[in-house]
Automatic annotation (TrEMBL):
It comes from Luteitalea pratensis. InterPro entries: Competence_DNA_uptake, Metallo-B-lactamas, RibonucZ/Hydroxyglut_hydro. Residues 135-180 form the Metallo-beta-lactamase domain. This is Metallo-beta-lactamase domain-containing protein. It comes from the Bacteria. Residues 1-24 form the signal peptide. It holds the Pfam family Lactamase_B. Keywords: Signal.
Amino acid sequence: MTRRLLGALLLIVLGARWPGSATSALRASAPRESRPYLPELRTLSAATLTAQSVGSPLPPWQAGTLDIHVINTGRGDAALLILPDGTTMQFDAGDGGAPVGSPRGVPVVPDGTRRPGEWIARYASRVMSHYRTPGIDYAVLSHLHDDHFGALPELARHVPIRTMLDRAWPEYGDVSGGGTFPATDAYVAFARAEPSRMVRFEPGRTDQIRLLREPGAYPDFVVRNLFANGQVWTGAGQATRSRFPENAAALPADDRPNENESSAGIRVSYGAFDFYTGGDIPGRPRPGVADWHDIETPVAQVVGAVEVAAANHHGNRDSTNAFFVSTLQPRLWILQVWSSDHPGHDVLDRMLSKRLYPGDRDVLATDISPANRIVIGPLLDRLISARGHIVIRVERGGGTYRAIVLEDMDESMNIKAVFGPYQSR
């Protein structure tokens, strides 16, 4: 079936505009060869495969679809991906940032009766309900800050994690040779309790995260490991080059590679669709430090243009530099935010600037704090959504995708807004 015919059918079903204004909600009408523990897919009835409509629960994932769930807990980054054959991947699961109750942060959502790890697990269990024995195939930890890894041990207590990719495993020592990472005893104990599931994240590779159920059914799907520990993919084969200097261990402590600069990141590609996420890498180093502290620029050179990008470092003031913005040129920006300094005013200005790249773009955020709104003011009015779980649903083949905002104050999974469909480039 041609992409044009698919588009026409979608228009009939959804009553949408093609490709439509992204700022209008669509109110629709009706790593191992042998994995014997892989859950079996349930067969979905035709009645469950309903259109995405405001006020209704999110329809289940369908085979051939790529779902990217950006989960808001108010306490850190958390994204669950359901790949086209049903393979699942968690990218970060945070529980950290400003102390709970601080005016610099936002409340835990849906509420404070459970820790974020359990809320993430409950969300994951709902969207993976098409499996007879739910479990997360891969979990990727971008770096060892609690707003990225703090919820992982709790998540794993409720939902099995089968393979864990960690940029620091197994040493948990500083890449520059001086000091240790700020990993908690709980996370280190979690990692070392089951060493058979732990894998060191290796930049450049495309075989560490792969389709496990029907690997031959979607040949145009790939997850590329882009960078970690200062090693950045070159764009050729699996080759990488180091962004960190050879004498990093001899530098003064304040000048050595830090935890954010050591983050791991990936690009998920499905046909013409590309999604980028990269932890907390910076792109605007502190005044007076060496240029190599800018990790975004060499990363942008190999990522290229994408459809959807998660802003680095929650849109903090040291991230999302002009070169990064003008190179990735995403149609959709995602801000995983919960603090008064997320995003920075200048960062949001760059993301929205048509001087940096032409054309329309939309920005969605998980939870803009009241304090941030006071500082940034009217610029935040240009976001199409400032609060809620965000689901990027990519249709079979990657030609079109939508952004769906879900209610985060309860577990209804009810749709608050639908934007799109967008056409992949």
